[in-house]
Amino acid sequence: MAKTKEISRRIKSVSSTKKITKAMEVVAAAKMRKAIEAVLKTRPYANLSWETVLHLAKLSDSRSDSLHSLLTPRKEIKKVAIILITSNRGMCGGYNTAVISKAKESIKKHDLPTDFILVGKKGTIVNRQGYNVAAEFEKSDILTDARDIFPVVKLVLDSYQKGQYDKIFVAYTDFVNAAKQIPRLKQLLPVELNKEDEFLGAVDEAVKTETSPVVLDYTFEPSPTEVLDLMIPRLLEIQLYQAFLEANASEHSASMTAMHQATEAATDMIAELTLFFNKARQAGITAEIAEISAGANALAE
Questions:
Q1: What Å distances lie between residue 187 and 21, 100, 106, 240, CA to CA?
Q2: How far, in Å, are 19, 29, 272, 279 from residue 15 at the CA level?
Q3: Is the backbone peptide bond immediately before 222 cis, with ω within 30 degrees of 0?
Q4: Domain residues of the chain, as ranges?
Q5: Does domain 2-21+259-291 have CATH number 1.10.287.80?
Q6: CB within 8 A of 200, min separation 6: which ones?
Q7: E-assigned strands of 156-282?
Q8: What is the fold, at CATH topology level, of the domain defined by 31-256?
Q9: What does residue 72 show for φ and ψ, rounded to 5 degrees?
Q10: What pLDDT, in 10s, does the model give residues 204-257?
């Protein structure tokens, strides 16, 4: 009897967990639909803006004088920064582990002093692992406007222009589909021309664009400096905003998948525990019948 009560308590406990994971799956699915809609709408614009940045960088590279400081690689790289985009909570499988590992691989590869700029609460683990954190920002689960990331953009542009960092990367997760997300590290500043796969969302061939080998000739009015001072930061802001959208879509997809798998695991566990419960109850009933029969036989004698 004690064994059946213990199994019954476990069944109730797992059933309660299943209800929670199912509810979390539904919430994640709703957020995922909104995030996917946002990321697919903005991808073509973000990639076109990056193509424009690359053309401007080519034009700057072909001139004796640089068009803009954000387009000019520095001769000596002393320090870099990585904008690390993670989730605010767990329950999303290996999503956070994958993007953090991607950032760590970059640090080992470049072997340079590196600061982290964290976006999302789960990124704080790098601080406990001995890495330096320069700043932390809150991350919204659903982004509706590029102005939501303006504090991050301002910090990045100011710190680069002041010479605090010589390279700035963004570590995020590219959204492929609901079942597949790819962690990536994209160099945001300065713009490098000889880098492949620099388009955000480039894993989706439907939105991937090819840059023209021809350097376009631009006419700037009133002057290149005034135009680019407004244009380049805005184009880079679009890139960072798209990285946030890709990360959000990936996070909610990973969360929905993880909660779906947890719900299925709970269903299987309930079925297994129910089988054990029925076997234990049947064994208990058989033992009771045997005892009654033995008692009846003893009385009959």
A1: 37, 16, 11, 11
A2: 6, 21, 12, 20
A3: yes
A4: 2-21+259-291, 31-256
A5: yes
A6: 43, 46, 47, 50, 174, 186, 239, 242, 243, 246
A7: 167-177, 180-189
A8: Pyruvate Kinase; Chain: A, domain 1 (3.40.1380)
A9: -110, 115
A10: 444 444 444 444 566 667 766 677 777 778 888 888 888 899 988 899 889 998
